User: Fold this.
Amino acid sequence: MIALSSRELGVVKDILHRHISDREVWVFGSRAGKDHKKYSDLDLAIIGREPIPPQVMAILREDFSESKLPFKVDVVDWAETSSEFRELIRRKYEVIQNPISNS
Assistant:
């Protein structure tokens, strides 16, 4: 269960779809379960073998920062994370976006 209201979930999905619709995205950390607080941050992992271009990551982070979400959104690029951090993410995550194929 992703711990977001339907409005918050819609905002997050819209931003993700605009910039990285071709990637799977996971919610991890406290909002991937029931141990979150009202203003807990939202942790997102963008899944893929190739790194996300820096300009895309910058725009994505800016859009989340400028959104009306009442919490901080942290975005990590799976291709740029250590194996130790990946293992932490895998312990508790929920898929928030499946990739849209361009074919």
Notes: The chain has one domain: 6-97.
